[in-house]
Amino acid sequence: MLSIDSSFDGGNIEVIKATEAHDIQLKIRPDTESDFFQWFAFRIIGARDLACTARILNAGQASFPAGWDGYKMVVSHDMASWFRIPTTYKDGILEVTHTLKNDSEYFAYFAMYPMERHARLIAKCQSALGVRLIVPGFTAMKRPIEVLLFGEKVEEKPSFWVIARQHPGETMAEWFMEGLLKRLLDNQDGAVQRLLQRVNIFAVPNMNPDGSVLGNLRVNSTGINLNREWENPSEALSPEVFHIRNMMIDSHIKLCLDVHGDEALPYNFIAGFEGIAEASETQLRIMNTYRDNLERLNPDFQTLHGYPKVQRGKGMKTTATGYLSAYQGAVSMTLEMPFKDAQNAPNSLFGWSPERSMALGRSTVEALLSVIDDF
Fold first, then answer.
1. CATH topology of 3-108 equal to that of 115-374?
2. Is pTM beyond 0.70 here?
3. Which long-range contacts (CB under 8 A, 24 or more apart) does 115-124 make?
4. What is the pLDDT of residues 168-217, one digit of tens each?
């Protein structure tokens, strides 16, 4: 019997009709206590060898409808290997047709990063020599806010932070973190060893575990967009930012890379803090050096396309990048990756993918090394 399931971690879909394989009608459920919606993840069961046509009826009312233009849905039979399938968007409806080769297959906005995989990543890292797991607090749903510290913390060394998934639906951010963190575990990698000798590396693979489990695009379990909370976080409503921000301040943070995904722009790029009046020329120079070097290190990254530059003095201080650059004097950057494909380096079969996200994460080691002499 044909059925639609979204009861797993990160699942999100409402079934309107699913009695016939050629006419599956669905809607995306809004985020918890919020009007945001765009992330979806579901599986079709009982349709082996059937050509299934699924229509998401409310795609046109999603938070970022421009994200559907040129978009291809991702599919997997095992939640590990993902590929793209042709997808059409017309008259506010997102439509996909796919013949299943298995009894059940997963369909998602981007490759899912389940909490089980997150738990294995944390376990692998914290059990390695020279890595510590720190839990400065808990979410509203009592999940631990997990920070990994790589290398022996020395006060004289500058503290670099890399955080991901403030917006839980941006799963490419945690795939990026997996690539970076697994490389940081390699004690025979000369670049890694040099980096850890020079700086304290703090990593938060998932800033928003509640939202990740709930299948939200943008908010936590209390309906809060974490990346608008940094100037004045609430321990009750945005404990994720409250506790991480305090820990960053205590560590005398010097650099932060905040990893995200962008629904509409088909590029990897860095959004900076040019609009922050308090930012110094030194901060801006280091940011530009980092950005230029990352482009040379990994051709999937580019510097030509991105968000419009914000006029100095008009930048938001409620974001991680804005707050940390303005109030902590940090070189704080937002790395954006596409939900679609990297148009400057397209791959028709996989688009932007978990593997490419992890590769960009690995390239971060050399990019960080390229600016350590400035701290």
1. no
2. yes
3. 115/9, 115/10, 115/209, 115/212, 115/213, 116/9, 117/178, 118/174, 118/205, 118/206, 118/209, 118/212, 121/177, 121/178, 121/181, 121/205, 122/146, 122/148, 122/205, 124/182, 124/185
4. 999 999 999 999 999 999 999 999 999 999 999 999 999 999 999 999 99
- Is pLDDT of 248 > 90? yes
In sequence order, which ranges of 127-250 are alpha helices (DSSP H)? 172-184, 190-198, 209-214, 239-250
Is residue 155 over pLDDT 90? no
Query: What is the rounded CA–CA span in Å between residue 334 and residue 330?
Result: 13
CATH number 3.40.630.10 given to 115-374: yes
CATH 2.60.40.3120 fits 3-108, yes or no: yes
pLDDT digits (tens, 9 = 90+) for 68-127: 999 999 999 999 999 999 999 999 999 999 999 999 999 999 999 999 999 999 999 999
Q: What's the pLDDT at 152? A: 84
Q: What is the mean pLDDT of the chain?
A: 97
Q: Are 358 and 176 in contact (CB under 8 A)?
A: yes
Residue ranges covered by each domain of the chain: 3-108, 115-374
Which amino acid is present at 250? D
Let me know if 33 is exposed, middle or buried by CB neighbors in 10 A (0-12, 13-18, 19+): middle
Say how far apart CA 343 and CA 352 lie, in whole Å: 9
336 is catalytic: yes
Please pick, among 14, 263, 336, 366, the residue that the annotation labels catalytic: 336
Q: Residues 148, 125: contact at Cβ < 8 Å?
A: yes
- For residues 173 and 260, the answer to whether their CB atoms sit within 8 Å is yes
Alpha carbon 18 to chain centroid, angstroms: 31
Helix axes 239-250, 320-327, angle to 10 degrees: 30
Query: What Å distances lie between residue 214 and 39, 115, 270, 282, CA to CA?
Result: 11, 11, 28, 41
**In which element (H, E) is residue 42 found?**
strand 41-45
Q: Is the dihedral of CA 207, 209, 210, 214 positive or negative?
A: positive
In angstroms, rounded to a whole number, what is the distance separating the alpha carbons of residues 205 and 164? 5
